[in-house]
Amino acid sequence: MEVRVDKYLFAMRIYKTRSIATDACKCGRIKMNGTELKPSRMFHIGDIFTVRKGPITYTYKILQLSENRLGAKMVPNYLEDITPPEQLEILELARFAAQSGRDRGTGRPTKKDRREIEQFFSDDYNYLLDEDYDFEEE
Predict the structure, then answer these.
(1) How far apart are CA 93 and CA 53, in angstroms?
(2) pLDDT in tens, 38-60
């Protein structure tokens, strides 16, 4: 038995839709033995292929074939994730970098900050900047 690459990627929940899987093949994100795969190429049991998603490259081994989309709990019976640990480490570093974000107080003001700024520049607080006040006398 053999299954088209785009159908298998969709069935194994690697991509959300079959058209996204097809586009990934056309853009060269799906490779087997270093060569880019076309969407119409056939997968066989035992094939090992790579999928480049974001900053990392996942590696998978086909255990069984299916054209129909499976439940998430059934996927490990059909597909084995053999991604190297160093690739998964890159993913963890990307997650850590996203969590660190920016320091509080940098960037655009929050609603609370904006209200405080507006209150500061209102007429009640501008009495110190009166034209009659001479700053040089002090």
Answers:
(1) 15
(2) 999 999 999 999 999 988 899 99
For residue 21, count other CB atoms closer than 10 A to its CB.
25
Rg value, the chain, Cα: 28
Give the position of tokens 């700024």. 117
The answer to whether 3 and 65 have CB atoms below 8 angstroms apart is: yes
DSSP letters for 48-74: EEEEEETTEEEEEEESS--SSPPPTTT
Q: Residues with Cβ < 8 Å from 6, sequence gap 6 or more?
A: 18, 21, 22, 25, 39, 40
Q: Spell out the domain ranges in the chain.
A: 3-100
Q: 0.85 cut: is pTM over it? A: no
Q: Which of 54, 60, 61 is nearest to 92 (CA)?
A: 54
Query: Angle at CA 77, nearest 5°, toward 75 and 80?
Result: 80
CATH fold of 3-100, please? 3.10.290
pLDDT in tens, 97-107: 766 666 666 77
C-beta separation of 72 from 13 below 8 A = yes
